[in-house]
């Protein structure tokens, strides 16, 4: 019966382990960096400190908007035009004008300016149809001096 000779751990073994370890770390880092860059949709604000200076103004505007009591629903119709219905106290609110933009949530498609026409009973319809995909719609609804801002996701 022969006894197995122990293998000697050499510098080549250590070199192989170190190179393999750092190759795996670099592969993971490059993969994660590529994924992060390809899915980055941009910033919400460029300077958060400057944006924070307007926080109270935004709160006051939200309070004024809530006091209007408007209920706004935005949806896509079968032809991918945006339909917006506006109600106050459960009744259709007529005489509302709208303007806005359709924004792709990840910034991969061009933003689209929207114009609306009244189709009756407090309902508006966009003249433009949206391409397939997910969109966020930003609307400014106006009636006389009242302004109501809404942002809705659409699919």
UniProtKB/TrEMBL annotation:
Key words of the record: Membrane, Transmembrane, Transmembrane helix
Key word Transmembrane present: yes
A UniProt-annotated Pfam family: FixH
Organism domain of life: Bacteria
Transmembrane segments: 12-30
Keyword Transmembrane: yes
Protein name: Nitrogen fixation protein FixH
Organism annotation: Sphingorhabdus lacus
The organism's taxonomic lineage, starting at the top: Bacteria, Pseudomonadati, Pseudomonadota, Alphaproteobacteria, Sphingomonadales
């Amino acid at each position: 019966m022969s006894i197995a000779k122990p293998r000697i751990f050499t510098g080549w073994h250590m070199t192989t382990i170190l190179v393999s370890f750092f190759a795996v770390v670099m592969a993971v880092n490059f993969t994660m960096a590529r994924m992060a860059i390809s899915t980055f949709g941009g910033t919400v604000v460029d300077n958060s400190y400057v944006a924070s200076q307007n926080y109270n103004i935004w709160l006051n505007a939200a309070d004024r908007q809530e006091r209007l009591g408007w209920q706004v629903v935005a949806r896509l119709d079968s032809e991918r035009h945006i339909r917006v219905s506006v109600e106050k106290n459960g009744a259709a609110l007529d005489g509302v004008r709208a303007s806005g933009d359709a924004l792709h949530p990840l910034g991969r498609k061009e933003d689209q300016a929207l114009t609306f026409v009244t189709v009756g009973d407090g309902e508006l319809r966009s003249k433009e149809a949206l391409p397939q995909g997910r969109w966020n719609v930003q609307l400014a609804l106006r009636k006389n001096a009242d302004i109501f801002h809404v942002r809705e996701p659409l699919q």
